[in-house]
Amino acid sequence: MINKDKLTALVMTLLVWGLAGGLCGALFAGLQQVLMALGLTAWQSPLVAAAAAAMATAAFYSAMPVALSGAMAGVLASVGSLILAGPQLGLGTIAGTAALVGLGLGSFYAWMTDAAGRPLSRTLAGLLGGLVAGAVVAALVASGRSAGTFVFAALLVILVGTLFEVAERWLIGRGRRLVPVDLAAALVAGLIASMVAAGIWLLGGTPTLAPDGTSHDLLGQVHRELPSGFLGGLLGGAGIALVLELLGFRLEEHR
Length: 255
What we know:
Blueprint: H1 4-37, H2 44-62, H3 64-85, H4 91-113, H5 118-142, H6 149-178, H7 181-204, H8 218-246
């Protein structure tokens, strides 16, 4: 019989995993539209979008202070670069600058808090899950099966959540031996900073995204896909969390 404490922990776990899944699904939906506008093919865009979305979500889920440090670095570096140099700066320049600032802030955070090497291991677990799940979605798209953003986002989150729990413990043990503690937090902050900076550049740093120079209604398309991606990820995250709990995984112990 489930007592009050266990029920509370289960509800909180479902809520956290549902929100994390919603974030992952929304990121996936938005990034896929942006990558298609940049010229990636119909099967390449879900693969890259799934890997990036899963990696970012894993970082925020398991290492919120480190991820927030990286996000702050990305905002400061990208906005500062656009103010000082204008929109003619390329994506690589802004993302690279933000990554360097993120590396610095991540190192400073690790030095101040004596953080463990888990942020990088968990981020890599998210990246691994995103690559596998993205490959599945890309294969479905390449085969001509289009199920819509809602279904693809739910499927992505289910696969990423399962692979994250399976791969995380294996990667943590090896990550602590292979990567220095300070470097682990710095790398995660740098990755998040570069992603945030790239998003800001896409929104305000360039007027056109299409390779042929034509204008795209990109923001409108992203806004249309975000609700489906968020809802699919939300339901997928809560559903897989319940299944994993029933299978014996103690997800509340890893938040």
